[in-house]
């Protein structure tokens, strides 16, 4: 994390994983690849391209290895995959990903519903995966994203101490970074500032991404609050696709287009070309006909005379 | 303006004026009154209830005096009306409003399109109206809202110096407060912080409301940015109704429901009961059948275990 407003932000696009995982229809592999190509063409430098889970559980992710292989053809980007367990991590590492991300929920109820393990059992899973990574692909980064860090539809309030302790445990277990996720859209800017400040105090440079949802309209305000606290990596989803199938009421990742527009308008560099980013909606919509796609900046268009700093 | 986070915020509901002025259909007077009653029942303490303009120009506002008289039955609220000129101000003062608000645009192109006067001519109108007010109703407050303060669809960029100078001129001409309006949804949080900081440096306690639009999704982030700078009055519209009929591409006032939810979730008092505020959507929708009504917090519902501080 960096408190300098000059530091560019890294937009970590989660649509091809988080987004697709939440829609009923399955996107064809070729469509996923076209979408990823369009994201890279727009300047997106980190993409969560797949989830390594049993195909019986999530048929949308059956082509995970193939999608990773396609994404790896692009140079200069970080290809990331979600892995809920050791088997998934092994497959993802075999496929050649640059970064693994693990969902570690601070709410026991959500953790059990999502991965059938308690938070503490997930920390042990982080440790096992970190060891596996060290043994076979030591250059690969491991991220532990703390889910339901701002509240849970099943459990209600989640204690801030639990969230910070869990993030610290993940780092101690071998994760390189740990960020905070508002899985169900409960976060508010005051809470976001408080928790990211505590996170940085606790784990310093290991503090990772803000993963915000727009369920109650506060997505961008929460991202701004996190940015104020020095967060420089933000998860978001093109067209606002996504949510969590195992957290009732979780809907709407922050829209990448609006988030990038906010930062670029503020003069904060993202490395992403907005017009090309808007154009990346076409392959998404072509691959998921009938699926609602959100985003106010692409609908309203850029302001008159708007010029991105380069 | 106040930098203390303990100071409650004042939500100035502009739907019955700004909102209705932008829709094609005309709401019946009885429906407007029911809507205003529901807003007051929810705890809204300032309402822009009408615009005093020639009925031929805006037939939706032909019942302005009647609506003002109805609103005045409620005690403890500030009944506000928009007045573009002396004649309007005279009629509004006769009707008994507590507060006049004048649109003074920083963009000459928008000012001419909106009120057929240059910004400088509008400052003279402010002066004339302040004198009129002093003569016949000295207790009435006069607000000058600087329109297109963050950019203009007609002119493009609006110089920040022009905005601040114009606000200062309005105060010098006799306005009690001057706020900044993002009439067309061009503002970003960095700009909002910069301009409100300059505004306060220039006119001190006379610095007024933030009037933000959600055209490109940044409405709440911009309100948060203004709040950080000490702004404690926010214009918004129930259901996000509104825009400006004379500024092409201006759509979507900030949604009152989502704005109040943001502040209340942060622990910032608004004096408004969220459940009752959500209930105030019913008379709005009944009075404007078929009109789109926005708001993510009312659609998603309040978080589990959410309790408003009282």
From TrEMBL, chains A, B:
Residues in Pyruvate carboxyltransferase domain copies: 9-278
Pfam families assigned to the protein according to its UniProt record, in alphabetical order: HMGL-like (PF00682)
Classification via PROSITE patterns: PYR_CT
The UniProt record lists the keyword Hydrolase: no
Keywords (A to Z) from UniProt: Lyase, Metal-binding
InterPro entries, sorted: Aldolase_TIM, HMGL, PYR_CT
A molecular function (GO) term: hydroxymethylglutaryl-CoA lyase activity
Gene Ontology biological-process annotations: ketone body biosynthetic process; L-leucine catabolic process
PANTHER family in the record: HYDROXYMETHYLGLUTARYL-COA LYASE (PTHR42738:SF7)
Family: Belongs to the HMG-CoA lyase family.
Protein name: Hydroxymethylglutaryl-CoA lyase
The organism of origin for this protein: Comamonas antarctica
